[in-house]
Amino acid sequence: MADGIEVPVQVKIHVQEIVKVEFEIQNNVQSIRQCQGPLSLLNDLNLKVKQKINSLRQKVEVLEQVAFEQDKESDRLAILAAMQHHRKELQSLQASIRKANVASMAIIDKSEKEELFGGQASSVRNRTFNKENLAKTASNITQDLMSIARMMDGQVKQSEADMQILAQSSSQVKDTQEEYKGLSGVIQTSKNLLNKYNRREVTDRLLIFFGLVLFFSTVLYILKKRLPIFGG
Q1: Which alpha helices (DSSP H) does the chain contain, by range?
Q2: Could you read off the pLDDT of 94-145 as tens digits, one per residue?
Q3: Is residue 185 classed as helix, strand or coil in its secondary structure?
Q4: Which of 58, 96, 151, 166 has CA atoms 20 to 30 A from the CA of 67?
């Protein structure tokens, strides 16, 4: 055992458990000493080592109780000696934890300062970069506006051309309407003439018919008077 202390066989297993926890705490102390952050990680490591310390303290107290339960004076003294040794080890580990935390906090503080100064330099670079981007963006916007203005000017000119074409088309439509009106007048006049001609044709036919009737009546009358065969 540690420092050559021999304990009774019945408590050796308990002492071995104490030694195991001490080694685990030493590993935790090393992790804390080397911790570079963030602070949340350091807090987690301290929480774990605190649990180990509480476990170690309880085991040491149990070892003390076991010592007073021994009937043999030699066994009691041996166990108490082992208990004192591990109690000192507990105190030493607690001191190591405090020193490890101080070392870790120094590392984290240094890292945060470097990050702060580095962040300021980065901020300056970012501001310069942002200014360049802003100027570039403004230039792009200006070009876009000029392009839109040219496009609108082209659309206005196209609209003017369309209006001229529409005006010409309207004029042509009006001319066509006037021509249609004139043609309609001619058609109406022709229709009236045709109707008048048709009426005259009917009248002429009637006159011819009545003329023929009168002619044949006259001929028959003369023949009747002149020729005996007609009953004269």
Answers
A1: 9-34, 39-68, 73-226
A2: 999 999 999 999 998 888 888 777 766 555 566 665 556 555 644 654 565 4
A3: helix
A4: 96
pLDDT tens-digit map of 9-22: 878 899 999 999 99
Secondary structure in 3-state letters for 50-99: HHHHHHHHHHHHHHHHHHHCCCCHHHHHHHHHHHHHHHHHHHHHHHHHHH
**Tokens standing for 49?**
């080592």
User: What Cα–Cα distance (Å) separates residue 178 from each residue in 165, 186, 188?
Assistant: 20, 12, 15
CA–CA gap between residue 40 and residue 65 (Å, rounded): 38
pLDDT at residue 126 in the model: 61
Output phi, psi for 54, to 5 deg.
Answer: -65, -40
Token readout for 166 is 């529409």
Residue 183, SS3?
helix
User: Rounded to whole angstroms, how far apart are CA atoms 227 and 36?
Assistant: 164
Which structure tokens are listed for 191?
């229709």
> Model pTM greater than 0.70?
no
- Give the model's pLDDT for residue 119: 60
